[in-house]
Write a structure and sequence with these properties.
Rossmann fold; about 450 residues; 2 domains; alpha/beta; two-stranded parallel ribbon; disordered N terminus; about 15% strand
């Protein structure tokens, strides 16, 4: 691969065109012999029996074939993707089955090339950074990764990188991995982790599945902060979260005085009622106002409208919602002049996720400002979450910008999940700037 390879950073992973071509050329039916002595297949239910018969080598191996009717839901957009927990459980049981058709000793810890497993500490050293696994108690164990600077034994700032969507601790397109390792060169330590039931963290017994925005993630984030504070009691703690990770970071920060810095990126939902579905919220939010304006200026939109390919009723419904939201904003502004916000009390913050309305969000940010917490809010300029932020703080966040220690940046180079390289570079610069604000002693 070369730096000019268009697929070099596809979704954050190095996969060149040659590798993609090789994968696309794989045809299991053309294999002269079985690729393995045990095969696990997850296939669409209507083709289950047929699939096994298509392979000439099928009679020579042990095949376990299970139905996978939710494939399309699983392979969707990362934020709303459905996790096939039942399928994962079947695969786990299959892997644990004590069948050794080749006669090998199951206690052998090395693979066919003689490569031993990683040591128990799971240490990884790179250029300017050291990473190691960590297991954090939190109604079970949360699995995480510390990324530390080789040159700095005691950090001035520690970042807690909050999980978001269905992404494990690496972040969408490996954004947390890239960010953590680059910032380690500046002496900034960080910890990234999986929420319970995500990535490498086991689920909490009895907890509901498929959680993105949910109050149960807040005490887990607090447990991570407990771990950081115990290890580096003198360091300033900064929370960073993208979208739903920002939701957790915000609600934890307003009730935890140990948080010295907060960065929220493309958060679309500041208020959440447990039991609400992501599909309901997506329908409620629609697209950003700027996106609708751009579509109105596009001649192709009017062509589609004449052909009946535009959902006019839905657009009118969204316009009505936006207008009503702006009217409510005007009323709230008048009320604010009569009775200024005083921030969130300790008792109020404990119930933050259960309360709703612009007042809570404003009081939360006001409380952070009064406490001296440096707060940065970042949005892509076409992100639908920006309309929600405007609902609370007015056009261009004018009420937010009146708060001490608050910064709002609207970025034209941000996609929602920060998959693009230029978006990740911009995030790095914003985070580094925040860390320098928190500590003037960075290298």
């Amino acid at each position: 691969m070369t730096n000019n390879d268009p697929a070099l950073r596809f979704a954050g992973f190095p996969m060149g065109v040659a590798i993609q071509s090789a994968l696309n050329a794989v045809d299991l039916r053309a294999f002269a012999q079985a690729p393995a002595q045990r095969v696990f297949m997850a296939v669409a239910s209507e083709t289950r029996a047929q699939t096994e018969l298509e392979f000439s080598w099928a009679r020579d191996v042990s095949i376990t074939s299970v139905a996978y009717p939710d494939m399309a839901r699983h392979l969707g957009e990362s934020t709303t993707s459905y996790l096939p927990v039942a399928l994962f459980e079947q695969l786990k049981q299959w892997c644990a089955t004590d069948i050794h058709v080749d006669g090998t000793d199951p206690s052998d810890k090395s693979d066919s090339l003689g490569v031993q497993r990683l040591n128990d500490r799971g240490v990884l050293r790179g250029s300017g950074f050291v990473e190691h696994a960590v297991f954090i108690p939190a109604q079970g164990l949360l699995t995480g990764v510390w990324c530390e600077s080789e040159a700095t034994p005691s950090p001035k700032v520690v970042l807690v990188l909050s999980s978001s969507g269905r992404n494990p601790h690496i972040g969408g397109a490996r954004v947390w991995v890239q960010l953590a390792r680059r910032l380690a060169e500046h002496g900034i330590f960080s910890v990234r982790f999986d929420l319970a039931g995500m990535g490498d963290s086991p689920p909490t017994a009895g907890a509901p599945e498929h959680l993105i925005y949910h109050s149960s993630g807040i005490p887990q984030l607090r447990s991570v902060i407990d771990h950081v504070a115990a290890r580096f009691p003198e360091a300033k703690i900064c929370l960073i979260g993208i979208c739903s990770g920002g939701f957790l970071a915000f609600h934890e920060a307003i009730s935890d005085s140990r948080v010295a810095g907060l960065m929220i990126v493309n958060l679309q939902c500041y208020e959440w009622r447990d039991g609400t579905s992501l599909e309901e919220v997506a329908d409620l939010l629609g697209k950003s106002t700027k996106t609708y304006r751009q579509l109105l200026a596009d001649p192709q939109t009017w062509v589609r409208l004449r052909r009946g390919r535009v959902n006019t009723l839905y657009i009118l419904k969204m316009a009505g919602r936006r207008l009503l939201s702006r009217l409510k904003q005007v009323v709230a502004d008048v009320q604010q002049l009569v009775k200024p916000s005083q921030g969130v009390s300790v008792n109020e913050s404990a119930q933050a996720v259960s309360c709703h309305g612009p007042g809570l969000v404003r009081r939360g940010f006001t409380g952070l400002s009064n406490r001296g917490t440096r707060t940065v809010v970042l949005y892509g300029d076409t992100d639908v979450g920006l309309d929600q932020f405007i609902r609370y703080f007015g056009v261009r966040g004018r009420l937010f910008l009146k708060l001490s220690g608050a910064k709002l940046s609207l970025r034209s180079d941000f996609d929602h999940d920060l998959h693009a390289e230029m978006a990740q570079n911009a995030l790095h610069d914003e985070v580094l700037s925040l860390c320098k604000d928190l500590s003037s002693c960075l290298s």
